[in-house]
Design a protein that fits this description.
Helix content: under 10%
Number of helices: 0
Order of helices and strands: EEEEEEEEEEEEEEEEEEEEEEEEE
Shape: globular
Radius of gyration: 17 Å
CATH architecture: 6 Propeller
CATH superfamily: TolB, C-terminal domain
Number of domains: 1
CATH class: Mainly Beta
Strand content: over 45%
Distance between the termini: 33 Å
Strand order of the largest sheet: 1-2-25-24-23
Structural class: mainly beta
Length: 281
């Protein structure tokens, strides 16, 4: 069951709506781009800046940065679509864009300058996260069609593949260099890579798990698929799992968690509309 992590890849205004939640649960806020057909929030940093992507009415994907209620659209020059997937505390942003020929590349946006991120020999690349040391993780597809995770550190690419994996994504990284992601061998599992050791992350019971984000405290967020094939978000804290589902959601991904424990991601409502969300502890 190979499934890629879902991210959404002009002038507009962001709309926010508080979603009531139980007293013991997080406080949810929906993030929507008015006029868009889909919105996703991917990461937030310590300053509360949020990056993500949206699809406009014409079907084109754009990245955005949300900062103190104001937003900036991020469009890679010459690209036909883009999404922002990671941001660190310095404001460096990573993501992916599609070039005029239809090929997908990773990118780094740092101090206003774009740099393409493509491991050697890749035919498709997504850059998913960047930590405060500037280390970048993502995935790429090689010439044989196999998907691998990667770490990009000081100009050097390192391939990330848990033993026996035929499909790997490296999706989140914290300042300590701990990496989370997903792999198939052959069933679909999340993983944590810390100090060279892979640990499998599986939400108890469900069919599959993806670990999508990790913060400096080692809290992990992601998504799992239950027996009815419904996607739910989760938080893993000190080994204990909690489901993350905004009220009214029929599909949820918890994608990023910052050092304050704020979670961002996306969810789908009963009408099929995809929304971004912020969950505050």
């Amino acid at each position: 069951m190979k499934h890629k992590t879902m991210f959404c890849v002009g002038a507009f205004a962001l709309a926010f709506a508080a979603i009531p939640s139980g007293a013991s649960g997080p406080s949810y806020t929906t993030i929507d781009v008015p006029g868009a057909t889909a919105t996703s929030a991917s990461r937030s940093n310590t300053q509360g800046q949020i990056v993500g992507g949206y699809t406009d009415a014409g079907g084109s994907g754009h990245a955005f940065l949300l900062d103190k209620g104001a937003f900036t659209t991020i469009d890679v020059p010459g690209a036909t679509g883009a999404g922002a997937f990671g941001i660190n505390d310095s404001g460096s942003i990573v993501g992916a864009y599609i070039d005029s020929g239809g090929t997908e590349h990773g990118f780094l946006l740092d101090q206003g300058a774009f740099t393409t991120i493509d491991p050697p020999g890749s035919t498709l690349t997504d850059a998913f996260d960047i930590n405060n040391r500037g280390q970048i993780v993502g995935h790429f597809v090689d010439a044989s069609g196999t998907t691998h995770g990667f770490l990009f550190d000081n100009g050097v690419f390192t391939t990330i593949d848990p033993p026996g994996s035929a499909f790997t994504q490296a999706i989140g990284i914290n300042t300590a260099g701990e990496i989370v992601g997903a792999f198939e061998a052959p069933s679909h599992h999340g993983y944590l890579l810390a100090k060279g050791i892979f640990v499998t992350i599986d939400f108890p019971g469900p069919l599959s798990t993806d670990a999508l984000g990790i913060n400096s405290a080692g809290q992990i967020v992601g998504r799992y698929v239950d027996a009815s094939h419904t996607f739910h978000g989760f938080l893993r804290d000190k080994g204990a799992f909690t489901t993350i589902d905004p009220p009214g959601s029929i599909f949820t991904q918890a994608i990023g968690i910052n050092s304050r424990g704020e979670i961002v991601g996306d969810y789908q409502d009963s009408s099929g509309m995809l929304h971004g969300f912020l969950a505050a502890p």
